[in-house]
Write a structure and sequence with these properties.
The structure is a homodimer.
Chain A lengths: L1 H16 L3 H4 L15 E6 L4 E6 L4 E6 L9 E4 L5 E5 L4 E6 L4 E7 L3 E7 L5 E8 L2 E6 L5 E6 L1 E3 L2 E2 L2 E7 L3 E6 L4 E6 L7 E5 L6 E6 L5 E6 L5 E5 L7 E4 L22 E3 L2 E5 L5 E6 L5 E6 L4 E6 L5 E6 L7 E5 L4 E6 L5 E6 L5 E6 L4 E6 L5 E6 L3 E6 L9
Antiparallel strand pairs in A: 1-2, 1-34, 2-3, 4-5, 5-6, 6-7, 8-9, 9-10, 10-11, 12-13, 14-15, 15-16, 16-17, 18-19, 19-20, 20-21, 22-23, 23-24, 24-25, 26-27, 27-28, 28-29, 30-31, 31-32, 32-33
Chain lengths: 401, 401
């Protein structure tokens, strides 16, 4: 089944890659318009397995692409030319969508249970991180042909669930093994023989991770104990170090309605802003000493804590029951300067490339709001069905996204 | 003459902006192919008034657009959708080039002597900085229609040459008045009534400037005396402060073969790397204290000192007679790790968005070399006539470019 999928879609993608839309567009595709792709984006419509394609210059909905399967907890990366979106579904489906023809140009069922993916800096490899079977798989970004399968085996016959996959410079990817308490770095520069570096004993149950914007520090959250595991990727060989003991699941005193997304962590100047787990606080950490330097009380349990591209403000959304609110922190004063209520069940936020606007999805309000980050005025509202993740093509130019 | 130009090109651009290429392409345009624009770029071919359009994924030359006038010291910004390049010529020509149809879609002679420009974060305003007449002018990015003319008048009837123009968040732009020793910030959010904030007495003869990647600190180099003028743009009202006394023209002991381009200054982590003026050194500065923390001996008088997107390495080129060399500094050790000789008269360098490659123009070798930033291997060589500036569409997503 997988192989048949692979061949069909590879062939299709190959044909489409040759370019001109009149010959290339599948039936469901819209009449393609010659246009730039630097201001495009997508919104995941989780309930209907649909991807909405949007234009961030005119703040409009350009079209919708259906048939992407189970998009709960879906994530998206973009091709290097910002024409294609690669959508990782929870059901193990990896779908390549052409934003110009608004059509699916490739789709493979690559695992039984998947939790996202990444794309290499040169744009040639798309890599998925999987729960079942536990491991990562690399695909040719043009054809979606399988390039390499790297099981996360940590004991004879035992495969770990993989979390926290991020791209690194070169064709390298870092990720964490939930069941093995280990961080691994796999280098695909020789795709036939991927080389994996193991960093064991990082702590129990890493549940998510991020890499700092410069690609230097990989940080994994630990579900099984206090603190976080930090790896300096510029060190040879890379070593793990425990930071922020007292942070995390272990000191938990409140029920946790939703584990924070570490990928959302904000680094502004030399400070990082972290969601406290369970507590109604955002932690402020010095990124040189990795010591906590402050805590900011907020309106609920933070889920995403995101810095504007300029680092001037940090935006926070919350777990139920406070998930109708968004708060904005001024990083020069550490004060909350605004509380917004854009609609029930705020699930995600995405900044325009230079940060003049933020797009906020409110699932239960069936709405995506575009907010001016300076005046906080609502610039546009898009009505869409149960929106969750919002992703812009400018991510293609960034490390660790 | 200017006005007639304006109307013709405005109409043309308006027509073209409506989209589909078959109706839109002027005669000289190549048959447009439906494609993404996130991996496009341009190389300025100074001698022939030509713009070469390149593809950074396949490292190929896609085409050339002629008729751009005097491109000495030309600079380029990109439209928000990364489809169009705006080219500022030394002769005051502002040309809008469609990277997809490879055609000029708008051109105005907007001044007698121009020194570059910038584009607003929302992509709506293109602003030129001019020597004659001294001041800045804002144009509609779609039509190139003049939106606002802001002369740099500093005494009755006296207009200053303008340098160091950068975009700021909002529709604001910061720039320096060479003849008045003043920094100004003009806000075009009400285009009919642009509002200008003046910061006087910053020091004699600011000759160039830059804004830090987060848009917070505006720094002008002073030709007339030692040191640099620093403005914290997040302060209300913004105030000027002198930094690095002992740096600059005043302490000059060597002949200066070419003034460094401040725009090239590298900020890596909390350190900035600055070209010493005249001396064969790169200065290392702490961006919190703005104190000098080190000097790195290099192979000549540095012109551009540029950090890789990840800040891991800083690349330096030089003034004559050392302009056939490029040196690479490791920012973790402050040591030079490689000296390259890509060809005579290295004028500019540009990194791919995630920094896996750097494109280096060697004017007298009629060559642009693509170098792997990790292995330093040459990945490709493009033969073009007298290349100078290299600019990639990923700049559209960055502040201060």
């Amino acid at each position: 089944m997988n192989r048949r999928h692979l061949l069909t879609t590879a062939a299709a993608a190959g044909l489409l890659a040759s370019g001109c839309a009149s010959t290339a567009s599948p039936p469901q595709a819209a009449a393609p318009v010659l246009r730039g792709t630097g201001d495009l984006g997508v919104v995941v419509l989780r309930a209907s397995g649909t991807l909405a394609i949007i234009d961030t210059s005119h703040r409009t909905l350009l079209g919708q692409v259906t048939g992407l399967g189970d998009l709960s907890h879906a994530s998206v990366v973009f091709s290097r030319d910002t024409r294609y979106a690669f959508v990782f579904g929870r059901d193990g489906g990896l779908t390549k969508v052409d934003l110009l023809t608004q059509a699916i140009v490739g789709r493979v069922m690559q695992a039984g249970n998947s939790i996202g993916g990444a794309i290499s800096a040169d744009g040639r490899l798309v890599v998925a991180q999987n729960y079942t079977p536990g491991g990562i798989k690399a695909f040719d970004a043009q054809t979606l042909a399988l390039v390499a399968d790297v099981p996360a085996e940590y004991a004879p016959g035992k495969l770990s669930r993989v979390v926290g996959l991020v791209d690194l410079p070169g064709q390298r990817f870092a990720y964490s093994l939930f069941d093995a308490g280990e961080i691994r770095i796999t280098d695909f520069s020789d795709p036939a023989h991927p080389h994996t570096t193991r960093i064991p004993n990082i702590g129990r149950q890493p549940y998510d991770a991020l890499v700092t914007p410069n690609g230097r520090h990989y940080i994994a959250g630990l579900f099984g104990e206090d603190g976080l595991a930090l790896v300096d990727l510029w060190q040879e060989p890379p070593k793990v170090r425990r930071i922020l003991n007292g942070y995390g699941r272990g000191e938990q005193t409140l029920p946790v309605y939703k584990m924070p997304h570490l990928r959302g962590w904000a680094v502004a100047g030399r400070r990082a802003y972290l969601p406290a787990i369970g507590h109604h606080e955002v932690l402020v950490v010095d990124t040189e000493s990795w010591q906590e330097v402050g805590r900011i009380p907020v309106a609920g349990q933070p889920v995403f804590v995101m810095a504007q591209p300029d680092g001037r403000q940090v935006w926070v959304n919350f777990a139920v029951p406070d998930y109708h609110r968004v708060q904005v922190i001024d990083t020069t004063t550490q004060q909350i300067v605004r509380t917004l209520e854009p609609g029930k069940a705020v699930l995600h936020m995405e900044f325009t490339p230079r940060g003049e606007s933020v797009w906020i999805s409110s699932r239960d309000a069936n709405r995506v709001s575009v907010i001016d980050t300076h005046s906080f005025a609502t610039q546009a509202v898009l009505e869409v069905d149960s929106p969750s993740g919002v992703f812009f093509t400018s991510r293609a130019a960034r490390l660790g996204f």
